[in-house]
Design a protein that fits this description.
Layout lengths: L3 H25 L16 E7 L31 E5 L2 E5 L4 H10 L3 E8 L5 H10 L9 H7 L9 E3 L13 E3 L5 H6 L17 H18 L3 H22 L13 H13 L5 E5 L13 H20 L13 E7 L2 E2 L11 E2 L1 E8 L6 E3 L27 H11 L22
Parallel strand pairs: 1-7, 1-8, 4-12, 5-6, 5-7
Antiparallel strand pairs: 2-3, 4-11, 8-11, 9-10
Helix pairs in contact: 2-9, 6-7, 8-9
Length: about 425
């Protein structure tokens, strides 16, 4: 039996093999089939990363300093030894303990956008989470990744896969698959059926393949003989059989089953699901405890770890062929968010309490990157903005999570008016909008 050190060493080797395999895949991509340089909006994939508990937006995304970029402003307590970092038009909180953040924005800032001053409409954990992920408090509304997965034009065997983190399927539950606890490969190969309270028998090839082909032929024959509504239903059944056979036949080509369950491991798993056309959306948790009422110190290392993993993910995607685009980096959108922000001032215990004004990080295909959108004043209170430019405007709109979420739907090629009629879109976030 392997001890903890042996298992970690194996995972590290497997991850290096996985990342190294990306270069080989990229080199052979021309042998596959012609792909576009950029994926169409409806073909884009989405990775959602969720920080549970309410992150401190000033830790990275919404810095507030004096004009020298170092000194404090009266209304906001910034971390000790931190200072203003810049990359193009992006401004963020830097410091000697945030070198990974500097590296990420230096390399990938052109793909990245920061959205500040987002009203979460709540300072409660459950309600804030619901608002940020759906734009509403109504229980029947599905979250942004579920809507994207359920309303695309391509067929995905596992449309929205939840490795960890929240999920609001609403009325679109058929699009959502939970794959935490090491169940991903079991979902792919069908062995998860044997884990049920009343497990079904598992057949091995070639018997399994013969039965699949027999069922497919009978369904196809039946469908060909039907008309009208019966034909539509038969075609739907045939499509489901085809998807099941396709899913079972997919092979993970870079040692995916040897990866662990760290944040980076789950990011890489999601990217492989996207590359193979198995999923359109995925949800993962950003590890850590963000409800820091008693001590603000954990916020920085936890958020920095996210950017360290994100840097590796973007390196990987830039060297990996996509499902419909030449490179995954031109096909995937990464979204990071939390249920609300934290107060601008420290409390008596050295922590920060709940605050309705939030920040969202968005990067990848179709994003109008190298920019900051939304705004907060020196008291960390949201300011009205022009939704078309994303910049502060005295006669503008107070930016809400619903405006940001609808921009994500537009990035994914969907018509936002179908989902929240009458609500405007933060169109500034979408390149070319």
């Amino acid at each position: 039996m392997m001890n903890k050190m042996d298992r970690k060493a194996r995972r590290d080797v497997s991850r290096r093999a996985f990342l190294g395999g990306a270069a080989a895949l990229m080199g052979s991509a021309g042998l596959w089939y012609p792909k576009k340089a950029m994926a169409a909006p409806i073909e884009r994939k989405f990775l959602f990363c969720y920080a549970n508990g309410g992150w401190d937006t000033t830790t990275i995304l919404d810095p507030h300093y004096a004009e020298d970029g170092i000194g404090p402003v009266g209304g906001v307590d910034m971390d000790v030894n931190s200072f203003l970092g810049t990359a193009g038009r992006i401004k963020y909180t830097s410091g000697p303990d945030r070198l990974e953040v500097d590296e990420y924005f230096r390399k990938w800032g052109k793909y990245s956008a920061i959205v500040n001053g987002v009203d979460a409409h709540s300072v409660g954990h459950d309600s804030g989470q619901k608002f940020m992920l759906t734009g509403t408090s109504a229980s029947s509304y599905a979250d942004w990744p579920t809507l994207l997965a359920a309303n695309g034009t391509l067929e995905y065997p596992l449309p929205h896969i939840v490795f960890s983190g929240p999920s609001y399927p609403g009325t679109q539950g058929a699009a959502v698959v939970r794959a935490g606890g090491g169940t991903l490969l079991s979902l792919i190969d069908g062995s998860i059926n044997g884990r049920a309270d009343a497990p079904s028998p598992t057949l091995m090839p070639p018997a399994d393949d013969m039965i699949d082909q027999f069922v497919y032929n009978r369904v196809a024959e039946f469908a060909a003989q039907q008309k009208g509504l019966a034909r539509e239903r038969a075609d739907g059944l045939l499509s489901n059989v085809e998807r099941a056979m396709e899913l079972e036949g997919r092979q993970f080509e870079a040692g995916l089953d040897d990866l662990g369950n760290t944040m980076l491991d789950n990011m890489l798993k999601a990217s492989e699901m996207f590359r193979l056309g198995l999923s359109r959306c995925a949800m993962i948790s950003i590890p850590g405890g963000y409800d820091t009422h008693g001590n603000i110190a954990p916020q920085a290392p936890q958020q920095v770890a996210f950017y360290a993993a994100l840097n590796e993910l973007f390196d990987h995607m830039s060297n990996t062929p996509g499902h419909t685009a030449e490179r995954l980096v031109d096909e995937v959108v990464v979204v990071a968010l939390s249920e609300f922000g934290r107060t601008p001032k420290l409390n008596g215990g050295g922590g920060k309490d709940h605050w309705p004004y939030n920040s969202v990080f968005v990067a990848g295909a179709g994003v109008a990157g190298n920019n900051r959108y939304g705004a907060t004043d020196d008291g960390l209170i949201a300011m009205p903005i022009d939704l078309k430019t994303g910049q502060a405007s005295a006669g503008g709109t107070m930016l809400g999570c619903e405006h940001v979420g609808l921009a994500l739907l537009r990035l994914g090629g969907l018509d936002p008016s179908r989902f929240l009629p009458g609500v405007d879109v933060l169109s500034a976030l979408v390149r070319g909008a």
